[in-house]
Design goal:
The complex is a heterodimer of chains A (388) and B (208). Chain A is elongated, with a radius of gyration of 32 Å. In chain A, helix 6 (138-193) runs antiparallel to helix 7 (199-229), helix 8 packs across helix 10 (276-294) and helix 10 (276-294) runs antiparallel to helix 11 (349-359). Helices cover 49% and strands 21% of the residues of chain A. Chain A has 3 domains: 13-136, 2-Layer Sandwich (Beta-Lactamase), CATH 3.30.450; 141-229, Signal transduction histidine kinase, dimerisation/phosphotransfer (DHp) domain (Helix Hairpins), CATH 1.10.287; 234-387, Heat Shock Protein 90, CATH 3.30.565.10. Chain A is of the alpha+beta class and 388 residues long. In chain A, the strands form 3 sheets. Chain A has a 5-stranded antiparallel β-sheet with strand order 2-1-5-4-3. A 5-stranded mixed β-sheet of chain A has the order 7-9-10-12-11. With 208 residues, chain B is an alpha/beta fold. In chain B, 58% of the residues lie in helices and 12% in strands. Chain B is built from 10 helices and 5 strands. Chain B has helices spanning 14-25, 37-42, 63-72, 88-96, 109-141, 145-155, 160-167, 171-184, 190-201, 203-207; strands at residues 6-10, 30-34, 50-55, 79-83, 101-104. Chain B has a 5-stranded parallel β-sheet with strand order 2-1-3-4-5, sandwiched between helices. In chain B, helix 3 links the parallel strand 3 (50-55) and strand 4 (79-83). The chains are: A alpha+beta (388), B alpha/beta (208). Chains A and B meet through helix 6 and helix 7 of A and helix 1 of B.
Chain lengths: 388, 208
C-alpha cells in the first residue's frame, strides 16, 4: 500500500533501481557465501576472490589477485588443469563436469583437501571470465570414509567368520572319514607285518576304506556346491551406475594415490542382467589393479580411464585402462589362479574376476595399452528385457 | 591273567568307532565302543584295567563334559582325547584335568597305541594300589579297638612301657596285643607296619 502513495517511477528509473538492487544483492550473496567464490580471466589469473577464501584456502583475497589459479591446486593437477583449460578455450570442449566436480585443492599452508567445484563463464567485451564456487568437503569426505571403512571392515569380518566356520566344519567332516581310513590301513599294515592278515579281514577293511574315501569326497563336493551357489542374485542393472558406485568406493584409494579418473561412459546403455555385488567386485579388482600398476610411476601423471559402450556384437563392453607398468610377457598368465606380480598379492583377483564375468555369460581379457600400461576389458550380454 | 584290559571308545561316528576297534585289536586289546556320552556313562564296567578313548566333539555331552562327570562320580579312568581340530585351549583344559594324552585326528597309530598302553599301565597301577589299601583296611578293621590303639601308638614311636603306662595295663599285655595285631595285619616288622598305617591314612582318607 505504500507503493500506491509513491510518485510514479519512470521505466528507466525502475530499471536502474532494479539493476542496482540486483548488483547489491549479488554482492551480498558473494560476500556472505560460505563457499569460496573465485573469478579468473582467460589467462587463468585470479580477478576476484570473496572473503570465504581466507577461511578455506588461508589466502587473503588481495594476495590472490593477479596470481594464477593453479596456486590453489596441488602440483599433480596443475598441468592437467592448464591442458584442459587451454583445450576448452580453443575448442569449447568440456572434459569435466562443470557442476559439482570433486577435486583436490591446496591450502596456503601446503595442506591438500577435497573440494567440490561448480563454475560458469561470462563473456565481457569479447573476453571470457570464469567464476567458480569452491566448497570444502573435508568433513563430508571424512564421514564418508569412516562409513566406508566400517562397511569394508564389516564385510571383511563377516567373510572371515564365514571362512573360519567353513574351515572348522570342513576339518571335522573330512577328518572323520580320514581318521577311519588311516586307522583301517594302519591296522592292516600291522597285521601284514605280523604275517597275520587274513584275506577276509583285509577285504572288510578295504571295503570300509573305499566307503570312507567316498564319504570324504562327498563332503568336498558339498562344499564346492555351497561356494558356487552362494551369492549370484541377478537383477537388471545399468552398468554405468555400478561403475559410479565402485568409483565412489575406491575414491579414497584414488585420492591417496593421486590417480585421476577419466570416465567415458556411454549414456543410456541397455541394461545387463547381473549380480550387482559380483560386478562391483570385478570392477573394484580391475581398478585397484590399475592403481597398483601406477604406484611405481613417479613423475608421470597417473590416469585411469574407465569406458563403457556397446561393442560390435551388441554386448556391453567395459574397459579399464591404466598408464602403469603394463603386463609385459606375463599377459597370458595373469588370469591363472595364484599367479601374482605383487609382493603381498594372493593371485586370485583376476582369476576370480574372470570366472565371475564368465558366470554372467561374458568374457574378460587383457591387452597392452599404448604407449604403456594395460587395458582390462570385459563384456556382458544385455538382458533379454533390455534387448526387445 | 583273567584281568584282560578293556579300552572304551566313545565316538559318534560309526566308521571311526569300528576302525579304532580294528586297530586296537591288532595288539590284542579288547574294545567296547559307544556312540554317545550317555550310553557310556550308563554302562556297568567290570573291575579290570581300562582306559577311555574319547572324541572331544560329541552330540549331547562333550568329551570334556564326560571327563568332568567321571571326576564328579570319583571314577578315575585314564582318558585319551581325540580331536578333529587342534583346539589348544581345550587340550590344555583336558590335560590339566588329568587326561593322559590329547591327539589330533587322523591320529598316528603308534601314538594312539602308546597312549593306550600308558593309560592302561596307569590304571593297573592305580587299581593295585587301591586293592592294597582295601585289603589293609579290611585287616585293620578286623583288629579289636584296643589292638588298633596299641599299633597306632607304636607307629607314633612309643615304647611298650610307655603304651602300658598310657593305657593303664601291664607291659606284658601290650606285648601280646602287639604281636596279635602284627599277625592280623601281616606285618613282618615294625617298619612294615608303619608303612601300612601310612598307606591307610593317605588316599583312603581322601576317598572316604
Amino acid at each position: 500500500m505504500t507503493a500506491e502513495r509513491q510518485p510514479a517511477q519512470t521505466d528507466r528509473e525502475r530499471e536502474e533501481s532494479a539493476l542496482h538492487y540486483s548488483e547489491e544483492n549479488h554482492r551480498l550473496v558473494v560476500e556472505t557465501a560460505p563457499d569460496a567464490v573465485i573469478s579468473i580471466d582467460e589467462s587463468g589469473a585470479i580477478l576476484f576472490a570473496n572473503p570465504a577464501t581466507v577461511r578455506i584456502f588461508g589466502y587473503d583475497p588481495t594476495e590472490l589477485i593477479g596470481k594464477p589459479l593453479t596456486v590453489l591446486m596441488p602440483e599433480f593437477l596443475r598441468k592437467l588443469h592448464e591442458k584442459g583449460f587451454s583445450r576448452y578455450l580453443a575448442t569449447g570442449q568440456r572434459r569435466i563436469n562443470w557442476q559439482g566436480t570433486e577435486l583436490t585443492a591446496l591450502r596456503k599452508n601446503g595442506q591438500e583437501f577435497p573440494v567440490e567445484i561448480s563454475f560458469g563463464e561470462l563473456s565481457r567485451d569479447g573476453h571470457k571470465v570464469f567464476t567458480g564456487f569452491i566448497r570444502d568437503i573435508s568433513e563430508r569426505k571424512q564421514a564418508q570414509q569412516a562409513l566406508q571403512m566400517t562397511q569394508m571392515e564389516l564385510a571383511r569380518v563377516s567373510r572371515l567368520t564365514t571362512m573360519g566356520e567353513l574351515a572348522a566344519s570342513i576339518a571335522h567332516e573330512v577328518n572323520q572319514p580320514l581318521t577311519a581310513v588311516t586307522n583301517n590301513s594302519s591296522a592292516c599294515l600291522r597285521l601284514l607285518a605280523a604275517d597275520n592278515l587274513k584275506p577276509e579281514v583285509l577285504r572288510r577293511a578295504l571295503e570300509e576304506i573305499v566307503a570312507d574315501g567316498n564319504r570324504a569326497s562327498a563332503v568336498v563336493a558339498r562344499i564346492r556346491a555351497f561356494i558356487k551357489k552362494a551369492p549370484a542374485e541377478k537383477n537388471e542393472l545399468d552398468i554405468n551406475e555400478v561403475i559410479q558406485e565402485v568409483l565412489a568406493l575406491a575414491g579414497r584409494e584414488l585420492l591417496e594415490n593421486r590417480v585421476l579418473i577419466e570416465c567415458q561412459l556411454t549414456k543410456a546403455l541397455p541394461l545387463v542382467l547381473a549380480d550387482r555385488v559380483q560386478l562391483q567386485q570385478v570392477l573394484l579388482n580391475l581398478i585397484m589393479n590399475g592403481v597398483e600398476a601406477m604406484i611405481a610411476l613417479r613423475d608421470q601423471s597417473r590416469s585411469l580411464w574407465v569406458e563403457s559402450r556397446v561393442d560390435e556384437s551388441g554386448d556391453i563392453l567395459v574397459a579399464v585402462r591404466d598408464s602403469g607398468t603394463g603386463l609385459g610377457s606375463e599377459a597370458d598368465r595373469v588370469f591363472t589362479p595364484f599367479f601374482t606380480t605383487k609382493a603381498n598379492g594372493m593371485g586370485m583377483g583376476l582369476s576370480i574376476s574372470r570366472s565371475l564375468v564368465e558366470s554372467h555369460g561374458g568374457r574378460l581379457w587383457a591387452t597392452p595399452n599404448f604407449p604403456n600400461g594395460a587395458v582390462f576389458s570385459f563384456t556382458l550380454p544385455i538382458s533379454a528385457g533390455s534387448a526387445s | 591273567m583273567t584281568d584282560a584290559p578293556v579300552v572304551f571308545v566313545v565316538d559318534d561316528d560309526a566308521s571311526v568307532r569300528s576302525s579304532l576297534k580294528f586297530l586296537l585289536s591288532t595288539v590284542g586289546l579288547q574294545v567296547e565302543s559307544f556312540d554317545s556320552a550317555d550310553t557310556f556313562l550308563r554302562k556297568k564296567r567290570a573291575g579290570v584295567p581300562s582306559c577311555l578313548v574319547l572324541d572331544v566333539r560329541l552330540p549331547g555331552l562333550s568329551g570334556i563334559d564326560i571327563q568332568r562327570e567321571l571326576a564328579a562320580r570319583n571314577i578315575r579312568i585314564p582318558i585319551i582325547f581325540l580331536t578333529g581340530h587342534g583346539d589348544i585351549p581345550m587340550s590344555v583344559r583336558a590335560m590339566k584335568a588329568g587326561a593322559v594324552e590329547f591327539l589330533t585326528k587322523p591320529v598316528r597309530d603308534q601314538d594312539l597305541l602308546d597312549a593306550v598302553r600308558i593309560a592302561l599301565e596307569q590304571d593297573r597301577a592305580r587299581r593295585e594300589q587301591e586293592k592294597e589299601v582295601t585289603d589293609l583296611q579290611q585287616r585293620f578293621d578286623s583288629l579289636t579297638s584296643r589292638e588298633q590303639q596299641v599299633i597306632s601308638m607304636l607307629v607314633s614311636g612309643m615304647l611298650n612301657k610307655q603304651i602300658a603306662g598310657e593305657l593303664g595295663t601291664a607291659e606284658s599285655t601290650v606285648k601280646v596285643q602287639r604281636s596279635r595285631a602284627m599277625e592280623k595285619m601281616h606285618a613282618q616288622s615294625l617298619v612294615d607296619l608303619a608303612r601300612m598305617i601310612e598307606k591307610l591314612k593317605g588316599p583312603s582318607q581322601k576317598a572316604s
